[in-house]
Amino acid sequence: MDRRLRKLIRDRQRERCPQTVIDRVERRIALTNRTFNGPAILSWLAATSCLVGLLYVQRAAWLPSQEQPSEAPQPIVTNDRQVREVTYASLAYIGKTLIKAGRKSGQIIVQETLPPLQSGFENTKKAISKDL
Amino acid sequence: MKKLRTHLIATLITCLTVTAVAQKDLRNDPAYLPIDDAIDLNIITPEVNVNLPRFLLNNIVSEFDGGNDDPFAQAGIPVQALLKDIKLIRVMVIEGDNKSRPHLDRAHEKLSHRLNNSWTPIVSVPEDNVGIYALSDASGDQLAGLSLLIHDGDDLIVGNIVGNLPIGKILKLAQSFAGGNGDKLKEIIGQFAAAGMAEDKSTK
Question: Is the Cβ pair B177, A86 closer than 8 Å?
């Protein structure tokens, strides 16, 4: 065999694939062989939902104090009798307001509709008497 | 396949837990009126500020004795029937002045906008700026909440009841109630405030 040919063969045997080419091929293999791993995704979803739920529950404790919904301070209502009295007064007051508003609406309806009704009746009476 | 089933069950349980926890928050109830978001209590001091959540109402129902000093018994209303479906009672009475008037106007606008959009007005007296609103539940068969909004001159009165409220019994209760413009309510709250202050002084 020619000496140059042998040298060529030896050089080719020693030659290695460049690392960049190997990396590129590996990436392409990974892309084509990627499969949908359903159970793993569902597990991640479950874990994320759990975390979101815990964060939601805990959010009130982490909010700065001025952003927290201000609970109406009730230091004076400390026993059952007070709660009972305040509950009764609150509900009764709302009921009273309903009654008053209803009565006022009724008065306005009467004020607004009664005069036209009365004049309507008078006009009809006159028209009937004229015809007779 | 077995692994997939296990993961699906775990996900379902997690979602149900999160949903259940979220539903427990009263602020998510459609009948809850965010009064504290509309009225800044750092600027405005209400004359009456009643906040009775379910755990307090449950207390009075369980400790109900129907004795002589029980106002519900005197009105002939069984308190268990009245309160069993109520989750929250909120009443706020504010006597405004020139300084607080703009804040109260803004609060009234915010609350009435919300009520007019999502609730059903059952009684309105526009000349007195009185509005009473009701909200039904998802089925449309039951009451889910009642709200009251009055802005008369410098005063602002807001009421919100979350839950199924028997209106007939409330009207009957009102007939035994002396006050009609919030004075009686202020008087009752004032009595407890005075008793509380006296107690504070004696313990100091």
Answer: no
